[in-house]
Amino acid sequence: MRILVIEDNSDIAANLGDYLEDRHHTVDFAGDGITGLHRAIVDEFDAIILDLNLPGMDGLEVCRKLRQEARKQTPVLMLTARDELAQKLAGFESGADDYLVKPFALQELEARLAVLLRRGQGNTSRVLNVSDLDYNLDTLEVVRAGKSITLNPTALKILQVLMEASPAVVTRQELETRVWGEELPDSDSLRVHIHGLRAAVDKPFSNPLIQTRHGIGYRIVDLDGNR
Prior knowledge:
- By secondary structure, the chain is an alpha/beta fold.
- The chain has two domains: 2-121, Response regulator (Rossmann fold), CATH 3.40.50; 127-220, Winged helix-like DNA-binding domain superfamily/Winged helix DNA-binding domain (Arc Repressor Mutant, subunit A).
- Helix content is 41%, strand content 22%.
- It has helices at 10-22, 33-42, 59-68, 85-94, 106-121, 153-165, 172-180, 189-201; strands at residues 2-6, 26-30, 47-51, 76-80, 98-101, 127-130, 133-136, 141-144, 147-149, 170-171, 210-213, 217-220.
- The longest helix is centred in the middle third of the chain and has 16 residues, at 106-121.
- The relative contact order is 0.10.
């Protein structure tokens, strides 16, 4: 994978570069927003790691110009020092595909990049996969171990968010925002839908995929496999 790191903190950039290059990725760097935007437009990258707070031009503006003016669809993983919903929503609105809050584990960063790359490469088939569970985003068909599963529209949205983020944990707040937008449901709605999703996706099978991180959120992962 060829990755562009747009980060003004030299220590963070160096750590990212060392780790990713050790994992056989090619890494290019830019230390400010203007240079980073130029590199992102004129060169071809598989993914971009973009810091939110940059000199010259902040990460939100870089991402916005990349999407709206340059019409580039390179996957963008945004880095932010603040775990605030407003910051996350602003990042998604600017065109970012995912985000990580500093400090973060380098292994998780690489896993999220891999998800973004698979998502980009899967634009033709658009099938999400975790273990023996498949979700075709075009036909809205969910199949696990060869068995078709029927889900309501809300459960399908929740499943999509969890599968796209796998193996990372999605916070309750982010999951509610991604599924319901600004019209958030009452406090028990997400729990009820997760219960129904578990009944359909996990209960008929021997190994559960939907995991709860109490007080944080949910994830979907095969604890006996690779994801």
